[in-house]
Amino acid sequence: MNNTEIRGAASLAAVYVLRMLGLFMVMPVLAVLAMEFPDYSPLLVGLAIGGYGLTQALLQIPMGLLSDRIGRKPVIVLGLVLFAAGSALAAWADSLTWIVIGRIIQGAGAIAGAVMALAGDISRDSQRPKVMAVIGVAIGFSFYLALILGPLLARHFGLQGIFLVTALLAVACIPLVLFVVPTATNLAPSGDTLPRAGDLRSLLRTPALRRLNLSVFVLHLLITLLFVQLPNRLVLTGWPLADHWQLYLPVLILSVLGMVFLMRHLGNRMEAGLRWSIALMGLALAGMLQEPLALPALLVFVCLFFTGFNYLEANLPALVSSLAPAGKKGSAMGAYASCQFLGAFAGGVLSGLLNQYLSAEWIYLLAIGLCLGWQFWIRGIVSGAGHLKRYTLALNTQIRPVQESLEQLKQLAGVRDITLVEEEQAVYLKVDSSQFSLQQARQIMNP
């Protein structure tokens, strides 16, 4: 990567980390600290934990499309301002209801699509996967860091302090975006990074993508269900909230090692990895159904849950990218992200309702049932995806007619899908990399 790409990847990753910290730091503490509010109810707790997911899901795609019209940086700054405003409102809230409203406003700062599009704009085609990978790693890192920092900040500053820190971090990101993130120098074809409204309906009807969207919906529903229950269970074992980070740290380290073991042991057998991960999460939830449960056993089950969660969180987006039609990766990832956030919202609502009107056992039974069903609809989902790659070729109509070039491309070995976008002067290819020759394709486009 050149200096612009390195600076862009690092600064955008920093923006993502600081923003996602604000969303996630309250998850390991809110279920406990919410009891101090006069209008406390299990339903409001669930909404406070997962409420951000509703506005994230609804605005993710519109904000990305808006960035195509008015520019990436203005949309990102607008999103950060909304996020800071929601955080400040939650910080000064005197009721759990106002915290729910603050979290919903936080979610309105849906900048993921604009950030990814800007990352594409400032990187060359050959280096774009590296830039996206840096940002992807940052997203995962922010979640783990939030589980450690949340209880530590709560210990010294309480829930108000966490939200105030979150607001300050969002404000600090604004000059980072304006003055450190490079201005776009190499506009990426938008089909690679941004959704198109016209593509979404057809993609939602694609069986493999629909099953992946349902998978990420359930995955984030389950993680939200877990954090509505887990903090209070740890408190009941004798560990005060301020010390929970000492439990999360070794659990997260061991779960990452478990994920690495799964990846090495299973290799390219992606479907086996998905099945094992779902089975680990189901087993963990079945174990946590038991009451009472000693702390060592509870931590073992939490570790198993996160091992499966980590594997799925890392591999599901890669499958979406591989299975999306040529030129529609941005649309496929936009729909995927919306389902992810809807899952978080649904997890908050369902856990709150079940806690309030039934009992915690029903939450675990629901989660176990979802894992069992998941094993069926994931079957055969990765068939043929192992060698698929995608390329974007510049269209030059002055050299030869477009249809002639497309016909020659269709004849190349390994070409699975071709999408022509004339307004972008680009041809998108999805190919089997074990058979496809990129050099031959470039010769056809520029003889």
TrEMBL record:
It is a multi-pass membrane protein. Coiled coil: none annotated. It is found in: Cell membrane. The keyword Transmembrane helix applies. Residues 8-398 form the Major facilitator superfamily (MFS) profile domain. The lineage of its organism: Bacteria, Pseudomonadati, Pseudomonadota, Gammaproteobacteria, Alteromonadales. This is MFS transporter. Keywords: Cell membrane, Membrane, Transmembrane, Transmembrane helix, Transport. The chain crosses the membrane at residues 12-34, 40-63, 75-93, 99-119, 131-153, 159-181, 212-230, 245-263, 272-289, 295-312, 333-350, 362-382. Pfam families: MFS_1 (PF07690).
